């Protein structure tokens, strides 16, 4: 049964908070691993201090990869293009009736 008090705004806020909690938990796990590597001396101290920089660079590369994949998979919608052209033609006709010069076409 749906909660009558859950408005779309509250649902958005609840979903946003879930993402924030996921990110915070990921940050805590990564920080714990980093501190653990510093304490255990498994990796030489000189390399361990660079791990946050490596992580930030890796995160940036991942972000660029996701943007590239999103651009490659960007859907084309011929039906929506036709509807948009019809809307533009209707708007031009409406503006012409009001006496606005909309250019040649």
TrEMBL record:
Domain of life per record: Eukaryota
Subunit annotation: Component of the dolichol-phosphate mannose (DPM) synthase complex.
Pathway: Protein modification; protein glycosylation
Transmembrane region(s): 20-43, 49-72
Function comment: Stabilizer subunit of the dolichol-phosphate mannose (DPM) synthase complex; tethers catalytic subunit to the ER.
Main localization, broad class: endoplasmic reticulum
Family of this protein: Belongs to the DPM3 family.
PANTHER family: DOLICHOL-PHOSPHATE MANNOSYLTRANSFERASE SUBUNIT 3 (PTHR16433:SF0)
Record keywords, A-Z: Endoplasmic reticulum, Membrane, Transmembrane, Transmembrane helix
Protein name from the UniProt record: Dolichol-phosphate mannosyltransferase subunit 3
Keyword Transmembrane found: yes
Membrane topology, record value: Multi-pass membrane protein
Keyword Transit peptide part of the UniProt annotation: no
Subcellular location field: Endoplasmic reticulum membrane
């Amino acid at each position: 049964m749906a909660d009558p008090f859950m408005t779309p705004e509250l649902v958005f806020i609840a979903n946003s908070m879930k993402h924030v909690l996921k990110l915070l938990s990921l940050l805590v796990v990564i920080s714990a691993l980093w501190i653990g590597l510093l304490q255990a001396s498994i990796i030489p101290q000189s390399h361990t201090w660079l791990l946050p920089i490596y992580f930030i660079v890796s995160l940036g590369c991942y972000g660029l990869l996701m943007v590239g994949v999103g651009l490659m998979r960007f859907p084309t919608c011929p039906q929506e293009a036709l509807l948009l052209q019809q809307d533009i033609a209707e708007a031009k006709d409406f503006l012409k009736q009001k006496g606005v010069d909309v250019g040649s076409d």
